[in-house]
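Format notes (please read before filing issues)

Several people have asked whether sequences and structure tokens are stored in separate files. They are not. Every record keeps both together, in the order shown below: the sequence lines, then the token lines. Line labels are part of the format and must not be stripped during preprocessing.
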Amino acid sequence: MFDDILVPLDGSEAAEAALGHAVAVTRATGATLHVLRVIRPGRAGGLEHDAVEWRLDRTEAKTYVDECADRLRPLGVDAVCEVSEGRPEEEIIACARRHSAGLIVLTTQGRTGAPEFEIGSTAYKVVQAAGTSVLLVRPGEDGGHRPAEDGYRRVLVPVDGSSRGEWAVCLAAGLLSGSSGGRLILVHVVPVPEMVSRIPADEELDSLRGQIVEASHRAAERYFDQLRSRIERPDLSVESRILVSPQVTGTLQQAAEASEADLVVMSAHGASGSAPWPYGSVASHLIRYGRRPLLVLQDEPAGDRPSGQPQALGEQSRPR
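Then the structure lines:
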């Protein structure tokens, strides 16, 4: 799954909400966990530290990451700690690339995050530019939805029938390995097709729409039966949910909230495939508005995407 995982911390309690998830994924994958603390240049907003400030801040940062490592060691995780200086988003991305980290675990808000925004500026920039998988945690809600000490218990995966979706299912099942009574929740939303609206209603179109939905529902049932037979095991319970809605994205978000899952796992792109931007419409929406911890698997690193301007989170994107 992942060989190296990076968790950037800024010393705040909000940022530390990511630690529990970083530990859970590290233990499930056997990866090396890297803990990064970035010192911002100049305490008063200046471009550089003076010599005294720099020495004090670096000592404080080194003490902090060492304390984090001491807290993680009893959990069976030997973290590699690092301190750097610069713009947080740039240093986080540079560190991830330096260690070839396959996953960055971070909170949507840190020390300087404004609660009225769904995602802070540092997290936003990292998510957009990192070109790697990310696990986003929203602090302050139910303790950041931290996983249990022995790992995740309930993981939800939106499934659209694509090979990318199956990749997310396999990884989610792996995260539940060793978890007694683990439950994997697979969710598929059958879209109600849009048709030309007419008044009075066109019975032929309504009938055709119903037939399409029924056929899609039956196909989803067959697909889930096949998928379940491949991933079920004695210590893993697999639950499948097929929902029907004209609003795929909103329905998936509601399902994630209602599931009370410890983690939602999905691919950055779905059946629609490659795009000039880093995330499809569903992933983009859940990154910005979702309330559960979210692991987005990036299958197209930044350098491998088709040319074009990256899409900002929340903007209209190509339908999945």
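For reference, the curators noted about this record: The CA atoms of residues 80 and 115 lie 31 Å apart. The beta strands are 4-9, 32-39, 80-85, 103-107, 133-137, 154-158, 182-191, 236-245, 263-267, 294-297.
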